[in-house]
Automatic annotation (TrEMBL):
<protein>
    <recommendedName>
        <fullName>DUF2911 family protein</fullName>
    </recommendedName>
</protein>
<keyword id="KW-0732">Signal</keyword>
<feature type="signal peptide">
    <location>
        <begin position="1"/>
        <end position="19"/>
    </location>
</feature>
<dbReference type="InterPro" id="IPR021314">
    <property type="entry name" value="DUF2911"/>
</dbReference>
<dbReference type="Pfam" id="PF11138">
    <property type="entry name" value="DUF2911"/>
</dbReference>
<feature type="region of interest" description="Disordered">
    <location>
        <begin position="27"/>
        <end position="48"/>
    </location>
</feature>
Amino acid sequence: MKKLSTFSIWAFAIAFAVACQPKSSENAEKMQEMPAEEQTAEQRPSPLEVKEGQIAGKSIKVQYGSPAVKGRTIWGDLVPYNVVWRTGANEATYIDIPQEIKVEGKTLAPGKYSIFTIPKESGAWTVIFNSDWDLEHGHFQHNEKNDVLRVNVSPVWENTSAERLSIDIESPGLVIRWEKLKLPITIN
């Protein structure tokens, strides 16, 4: 009887150890080879998006966190009116432009800039380009002294709703969409 229970304990211990081993060492190796940024991006509730394109022959790259509506009231609640918003989720949204562009008719020199907005309940919204582009906590670190350009842009309210925030490089320049908002920023 004692031999049988000792055998059972050993058999159970070996079976437990085997069951706890990773199912595929291939997946573990892939995770080790994957940069930490990509590993965390896969787990982010607001995935990191990077868009690249051209407007009037000029290259533009934009990077932002893409939050979802998730049944929440966005405008005037999650994103308050008359307060600087990071225009995305997590770290600051930024634009990278290798050549001079005009935003709503105003000149913006080559460089990287964070993009902030000030949503309004009615009328034009303020879009801000700030020289501090690598901000870990978005609008919580916004320093108005580093604003390079501020322009006013009229929002368009659409009938259809976009679940995830997107910033696309398309006519007339950058187009921000989230929930029923469409914010077309003219760039040439």
